[in-house]
Amino acid sequence: MKIPSLSAAGIPRCLRTSILTAALAIAGPAALHAQWATEEFPLVGGWNAIWLSLDCSHDSPDILIDNASISEVWRWERSPSNVQFLEAPSVPIQGDAQWKVWRRGEPAATTLSRLTGNAAYLVKVEDGTAPFAFSLTGKPLAPRTDTRADGLNLVGLKRRGASRADIAALRDLLGALGQGSFRDAARARSGSEVSGMERDVLDFILGPSDRSFLTMKS
């Protein structure tokens, strides 16, 4: 028996809807899979610093961190406190609000419930563990840069080719500009021997303009 062909116009609306739903269900997993990405991090025994650009908040660290040699994960949080460690940078302070921590098998000592993206993490691997690659899968995020109103923002300087000396000079300049009147401090600083990016900043501040500057007061 020959089955006549039907155009879309000849298919009842309810049947067209069912066919479309079935097609989406079949294509759905492939389409959703394209929205995920995987990042791989080389880890060694001891403390490791990583930058996670993916949003991995779809599951808990207990599930995502499936390698038993990883015992702790710490995430830095923006906080009014500037204290990060007492004796050594390798031993951060959990009680400080700047850190959220996940500890394997210690829910009472865990404050990190999700691995969010665009964030820095410290990963503690058991001493003596051979180097290995650890992977996390999540949703890609657009790069984000947070700025601070109470300090110097050095975003993009390394990309521009700034040297360590340039960055150190800009940090020192920030301290000098905080002494007394902003423009007076800039004029006093400009009278000394400065060059490079520091000179560019001073020329911008002291150049002919009616712009105003907002400065923070402690």
The overall strand count is: 7
| Strand arrangement in the largest pleated sheet | 2-6-4-5
* Quaternary structure annotation: single chain
Based on secondary structure, the structural category is alpha+beta
**What percent strand?**
15-25%
Report the average pLDDT across residues.
76
Between the first and last Cα atoms, what is the distance in angstroms?
A: 89 Å
Element order, helices and strands? HEEEHEEEEHHHH
Summarize the structure.
The protein is 29% helix and 20% strand.
What does this structure look like?
This protein has two domains: 103 residues, no CATH class; 73 residues. Helix content is 29%, strand content 20%. The chain contains six helices and seven strands. With 218 residues, it is of the alpha+beta class. Helix 5 packs across helix 6. The strands form two sheets. Strands 2-6-4-5 form a four-stranded antiparallel beta sheet, with no helix packed on it.
Helix and strand topology:
Elements: H1 13-33, E1 37-43, E2 46-52, E3 54-55, H2 61-64, E4 70-76, E5 99-103, E6 119-125, E7 132-140, H3 157-160, H4 164-177, H5 182-190, H6 196-206
Antiparallel strand pairs: 1-7, 2-6, 3-7, 4-5, 4-6
Helix pairs in contact: 5-6
Using brief descriptors, characterize the structure shown.
elongated, disordered N terminus, three-stranded antiparallel β-sheet, 2 domains, alpha+beta, 218 residues, four-stranded antiparallel β-sheet, single chain, 29% helix
